[in-house]
Every structure is written in structure tokens, then in C-alpha cells.
Design brief:
There is one protein chain. The chain has helices at 3-21, 40-51, 93-106, 120-132, 155-166, 184-196, 211-219, 239-246, 264-268, 271-280, 284-295, 306-313, 322-329, and strands at 66-67, 72-74, 80-82, 85-87, 110-112, 142-147, 171-176, 200-206, 227-231, 251-255, 297-299. The chain is of the alpha/beta class. The strands form two sheets. It has an eight-stranded parallel sheet with strand order 4-5-6-7-8-9-10-11. A three-stranded antiparallel sheet has the order 1-2-3, with no helix packed on it. Helix 3 (93-106) links the parallel strand 4 (85-87) and strand 5. The chain is globular, with a radius of gyration of 19 Å. It starts with a helix and ends in an 11-residue tail after the last helix. The structure holds nicotinamide-adenine-dinucleotide. Nicotinamide-adenine-dinucleotide is lined by residues 87-89, 112, 177, 206-207, 229, 255-261, 264, 285, 300-303, 305, 308, 311-312.
Length: 340
């Protein structure tokens, strides 16, 4: 087994042991991401020391297991991440500011943006408005942004620029936006350095669709990706990749969770999804999002519509049965809506 896989597993075991046997009190001080270059024994001692103050009530202990009560998952980096968030693709700065503000007011704690969306400033403004109005604290929010491919040769500057545009001291999760074999390792290493410097907390990948491509990056780097963000929805369930990355304690996050702009009606009008929605008195969007969470996909539906943002978060008051989950699983046809 690869050394960084072993370390991810070791981290999971140590977190479980620490949670069972210690008097932990603070959820906001997670452990550092695993580093293949560190001696595992030293790392174990360090993790035990750092997790000693946490309580089992406050923090889940199973890396990668979704906690639908808390609405979070424990990443292999040791940080707890919300499993439902607001996506900001194709939003202007003003729309992003409002969407983020409404989302945080409604209870969302996860925000997904990217340098290429051109709205990191708006996202930062929305976060500050919500904090200023007392809805949330910075520590309660989990902000994701992405490094664009043309920045891969200048990762350090790209990270600094995203921090500045967001107006944040640290970013909870930064991911490489697309696989780009000639220089993505170098870009990832820039993110690893930023983790050491405390500028990034967790790091991961987006748009790696082949297990071999994911392994190529993992084998050339030290910190195991916390997350992979790929197009994932009922017609493209990403089952093979999800199983593959689970070996590393890496979780799947769905982009286009509702099929993406211009495609949502295809999923909303699907007979199976409509029938399940009618039987629960929920909308098709809510059923699809609930399916994502129960299937173990973090979901980040995008919207600039205040009502849709509230609707998409109202999915913690019902459960899809095993039979309904099986019906949803049967919809998979390995069909992507995007061509990138
Ligand atoms: P999505 O599947 O979330 O669909 C968005 C569309 O659904 C919009 O047209 C929106 O108006 C509509 N919608 C949202 N809620 C609705 C509701 N309750 N009822 C009816 N319509 C509703 O697609 P998306 O926003 O493109 O993807 C989600 C997020 O994933 C993005 O915002 C972005 O943050 C991220 N993303 C990442 C990548 C990547 O390459 N990593 C690519 C695309 C998107």
C-alpha cells in the first residue's frame, strides 16, 4: 500500500482512538493534513496531542462518513466539512454577494467559488455582510475556491491572489480546477506549501475522471486530496471514481448536482424523481439533493434566486427509503451534461 494511503488510514484510526478515549472540547482546531514526508510515529503523537481537546459530541470520527444529522463529513485532512453548500458558477459579483449572504442567513455553511468565475470579491463581500450581521462567524464557514489551469505555473501567487480577492486570512479548501498532466503536480505542491503556511486548510482536485489520472497526481505528491469535485448527478453517479477515491479517504463533491443550468428540467421531469418528490411533498430539486447526501456526495447547487436557495437547504426533514435510493441508483446512465 502507498505510504500516503497508509497515513490516511492511520489518521482515521488515530482520530477514532482519540475521540473515544479523551476529553475533547473544541471542534474548531482540527489536525493537519497527512504528510508522507513525516515519520508516522511522530505524526501519530502530534495528532493525538492536537485532538486531545475535542469531544465526541462535537466532532464525527469516521473519515468520509456523512453525518446527516450534523450535515457534515470529516475529511481526511482532519477538518469537518458541511455536505450541502451554495455554488457560485455563472454568478456576477453582485449575484454572488447576495447568494452567499442569503445562503449563510438560511443556515448554509459551505460556499463554492473559483478564480475563473470572477466573483471571489463578491463572495467575500457576502461573507462579511453575514458576519457583520451576526449570522455566522468566520470559523463556522467553509470556503472553497479553485486554482485555474493557466495559474498552475504560478501557484503561490494564485493562492495569494484568491486570498486577497476573498478578503480572507485562510481558505478552507482549495482545489485544482482541472487535471493538467504537464504541470498539475507543481500546482498541487504549491497548495501543499500553503497548507504548511496556514493559508489553506484542506486541498483537493476537480475534474479527474480516470482512477489512473487521480493516482498519477497522488503518487507524485505528499498530502492525500481531501476531496474530488466532479460532475455528478442521478444520470452520472460517478460510482467507480467514488469507490476508487474512498480508498484514500477522499470524498466526492458533485458539481452540476441538479444537472446544471439549461439541463435541470431533464432531471426535474424524470418520472422516477417526480414520483418520489410527489410522495414526499418535496420538489424534484429537493429529492435530487437529498439523494446526493444519502449517496455520500457533497452537493453545491448553484442559484441566484433567494427562494431556490432556501428550498435547496430544506432537505434535512425527510429521508429517502432504501427502495427510493435503489430507484435513484437505477437512473445512472453514465451520461454527462458538460463536455469538459
Ligand atoms: P446546478 O446543477 O447546481 O444547477 C444550477 C441551475 O439550477 C441554475 O440554473 C439554477 O437557477 C437552477 N436551480 C437551482 N436550484 C433550483 C431549484 N430549487 N429549482 C429550480 N431550479 C433551480 O449547476 P451549477 O450551479 O453549474 O453547479 C453547482 C456548482 O458546482 C456551481 O455553482 C459551481 O460552484 C460548481 N461547479 C464546478 C465546476 C467544476 O469544473 N469544478 C463546474 C461547474 C460547476
Amino acid at each position: 500500500m502507498k505510504s500516503n494511503m497508509m497515513i490516511a488510514l492511520l489518521l482515521a484510526i488515530v482520530l477514532s482512538m482519540a475521540a473515544c478515549g479523551s476529553q475533547m472540547t473544541d471542534v474548531q482546531e482540527p489536525t493537519q493534513a497527512p504528510q508522507a514526508t513525516v515519520d508516522p510515529a511522530e505524526e501519530t503523537a502530534q495528532i493525538e496531542e492536537e485532538t486531545e481537546h475535542m469531544t465526541t459530541e462535537e466532532k464525527p470520527t469516521d473519515v468520509g462518513a456523512f453525518d446527516l444529522e450534523r450535515g457534515t463529513v470529516l475529511l481526511n485532512s482532519g477538518y469537518e466539512m458541511p455536505i450541502l453548500g451554495i455554488g457560485c458558477f455563472q454568478l456576477s459579483n453582485t449575484q454572488a454577494e447576495n447568494s452567499v449572504y442569503w445562503a449563510l442567513r438560511d443556515g448554509y455553511r459551505l460556499i463554492d467559488t473559483a478564480r475563473i468565475y470572477g466573483n471571489e470579491e463578491g463572495v467575500g463581500r457576502g461573507i462579511r455582510r453575514a458576519i457583520d450581521e451576526g449570522f455566522v462567524t468566520r470559523e463556522e464557514i467553509f470556503v472553497t475556491t479553485k486554482m485555474w489551469t493557466s495559474d498552475f505555473d504560478n501557484g503561490e501567487q494564485a493562492i495569494q491572489a484568491s486570498l486577497a480577492r476573498l478578503g480572507l486570512d485562510y481558505i478552507d479548501l482549495m482545489i485544482l480546477h482541472h487535471s493538467q498532466p504537464h504541470n498539475d503536480v507543481q500546482a498541487y505542491q504549491a497548495m501543499e506549501k500553503a497548507v504548511e503556511e496556514g493559508k489553506l486548510r484542506s486541498i483537493g482536485l476537480s475534474n479527474y475522471y480516470e482512477p489512473e489520472d487521480f493516482d498519477r497526481l497522488v503518487n507524485a505528491t505528499s498530502i492525500v486530496p481531501a476531496l474530488l469535485q466532479n460532475e455528478t448527478h442521478p444520470y452520472h453517479q460517478s460510482t467507480e471514481m467514488k469507490e476508487h477515491i474512498a480508498q484514500y479517504g477522499t470524498v466526492m463533491e458533485s458539481w452540476f448536482p441538479l444537472g446544471g443550468r439549461g439541463n435541470t428540467q431533464v432531471l426535474f421531469n424524470d418520472d422516477t424523481i417526480s414520483a418520489i418528490a410527489a410522495s414526499h411533498g418535496k420538489t424534484p430539486a429537493q429529492v435530487i439533493l437529498r439523494w446526493h447526501l444519502q449517496a455520500g456526495n457533497i452537493a453545491i447547487p448553484g442559484s441566484s434566486n433567494e427562494d431556490h436557495i432556501a428550498e435547496n437547504f430544506a432537505i434535512f426533514d425527510f429521508t429517502l427509503s432504501e427502495d427510493e435510493m435503489a430507484q435513484m441508483t437505477a437512473l445512472d446512465r453514465d451520461e454527462r451534461f458538460a463536455d469538459y
